[in-house]
């Protein structure tokens, strides 16, 4: 069972991560646009997003509890990238030249990065 303090600290981390993710996804032309994070009635943390340039936001979640902003950036980027992939944006945000797969978000040296899933090369910081 997760304590209220853990949930609230995770929510704080996700709110900080959302600003970085919004900037990163916007600058890279993502198919989804993060709108906000919020608590669900069951103490789950949900993210609201919309298809870029289109109407009402959708909710997706539940996000895992995290202890750092960097962990929140990775979890949020992963979840939103999945939504972009489901919309057919199958290579966003682009991996290494010649690679047809998208990079994956992960921690590298304590920093959230986009990484090549084939060889774990860190390509760019997230945000």
Describe this protein's structure.
With 127 residues, the chain is an alpha+beta fold. It contains 2 helices and 6 strands. A 3-stranded antiparallel beta sheet has the order 1-2-3. A 3-stranded antiparallel beta sheet has the order 4-5-6. A hairpin with a 2-residue loop joins strand 4 and strand 5. The protein is globular, with a radius of gyration of 14 Å. The model has no long low-confidence stretch (mean pLDDT 89).
Search tags:
alpha+beta, 127 residues, 33% helix, 2 helices, 3-stranded antiparallel β-sheet, 6 strands, 28% strand
Number of strand elements: 6
**How many separate helices?**
2
Shape: globular
The amount of beta strand, in percent, is 25-35%
Largest sheet: 3 strands, antiparallel
Helix content: 25-40%
Average predicted local confidence, pLDDT: 89
Q: Radius of gyration over alpha carbons?
A: 14 Å
Poorly predicted spans:
none
Structural class based on helices, strands and sheet pairing: alpha+beta
Order the strands across the largest sheet as they lie in space: 1-2-3
| Order of H and E elements | HEEEHEEE
């Amino acid at each position: 069972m997760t304590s209220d303090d853990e949930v609230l600290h995770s929510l704080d981390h996700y709110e900080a991560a959302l600003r970085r993710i919004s900037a990163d996804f916007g600058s890279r032309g993502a198919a989804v646009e993060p709108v906000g994070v919020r608590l669900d009635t069951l103490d789950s943390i949900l993210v609201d997003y919309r298809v870029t340039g289109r109407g009402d936001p959708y909710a997706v979640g539940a996000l895992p509890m995290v202890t750092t902003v960097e962990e929140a950036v990775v979890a949020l980027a992963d979840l939103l990238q999945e939504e972009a992939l489901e919309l057919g944006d199958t290579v966003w945000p682009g991996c290494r030249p010649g690679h047809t797969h998208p990079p994956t978000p992960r921690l590298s040296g304590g920093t959230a990065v986009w990484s090549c899933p084939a060889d774990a090369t860190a390509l760019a910081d997230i945000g």
